[in-house]
Design goal:
The complex is a heterodimer of chains A (120) and B (110). By secondary structure, chain A is α+β, with helices and mostly antiparallel strands. Chain A has one domain: SH3 type barrels. Chain A has two helices and five strands, in the order αβββββα. Chain B has a domain of 73 residues: SH3 type barrels (Roll), CATH 2.30.30. Classes of the chains: A alpha+beta (120), B alpha+beta (110). Chains A and B meet through strand 5 and helix 2 of A and helix 1, helix 2, strand 2 and strand 4 of B.
Chain lengths: 120, 110
């Protein structure tokens, strides 16, 4: 869900705040399934929280070190986001339900054949 | 053995009928409501929940972040200092920092 959400934001300006409190402003170049981020044309947002990387214009940020990504409000249709999240929640719930039912059915079938062999 | 398989499928039917309120359902109910998110490092967010997933990654709108830090006055004893950062537009929050999510009545003022 958020992978496809970020794909719609490619080319937009965002501010990435990392877990070590550094903030980097740049243009979203690409994103992957782990939500790793490639940022182009880096510029300063919070002067104190910005690392001294004058040499770098482009960077790759591992998804796990991201705390926040600040987005412009006019970026996404909030209604569309909410509907997508609702669908995602229903999907993962039905997947979990069928998985647990399959596991329970598989366990019951295995126990049944085991009992059969014991009786013989 | 057949009875066990029957009861399993019956349970699944009951689950889909009753739409059991699991934790994720409770968050789903809070979509488009203002939620209070408690995060690691003494941070709290308050904003409108627009999207979430099973990792608890979230998109919040019009959020206000509160970072609570302890400032020690050397003359007296400990003082608690609260810093509030306002993030007006949209904020994506990575789920691995989230501790809890709670709904707030939309009518409540800050």
């Amino acid at each position: 869900l958020f992978y496809s959400f970020f794909k719609t934001l490619v080319g937009k300006d965002v501010v990435v705040e990392l877990k070590n409190d550094l903030s980097i402003c740049g243009t979203l170049q690409s994103v992957d399934q782990y939500l790793n981020i490639n940022l182009n044309d880096i510029s300063v947002t919070d002067p104190n929280k910005y690392p001294h990387m004058m040499s770098m214009k482009n960077c790759f940020i591992r998804g796990s070190v991201v705390r926040y990504v600040q987005l412009p409000a006019d970026e996404c249709d909030t209604v569309e986001l909410q509907n997508a999240a609702r669908k995602e929640a229903m999907q993962s719930k039905s997947v979990a339900a069928t998985a647990s039912a399959a596991a329970a059915g598989g366990g019951g079938g295995g126990g049944g054949t085991g009992g059969h062999g014991g009786a013989h | 053995c057949l009875k066990v398989m029957e009861s399993a499928s019956r349970q699944q039917a009951l689950a889909s009928l009753a739409s059991i309120e699991e934790p994720m359902d409770l968050i789903r109910v809070s979509l488009d409501e203002i939620v209070h998110v408690k995060m690691r490092n003494e941070r709290e967010l308050r904003g409108r929940l627009h999207a979430f997933d099973s990792h608890l990654n979230m998109v919040l709108g019009d959020v206000e972040e509160t970072v609570t830090t302890l400032e020690i006055d050397e003359e007296t004893y400990e003082e608690v200092y609260k810093a509030t950062k306002r993030t007006v537009p949209m904020l994506f929050v990575r789920g691995d920092g989230v501790i809890l999510v709670s709904p707030i009545g939309s009518s409540q003022a800050a």
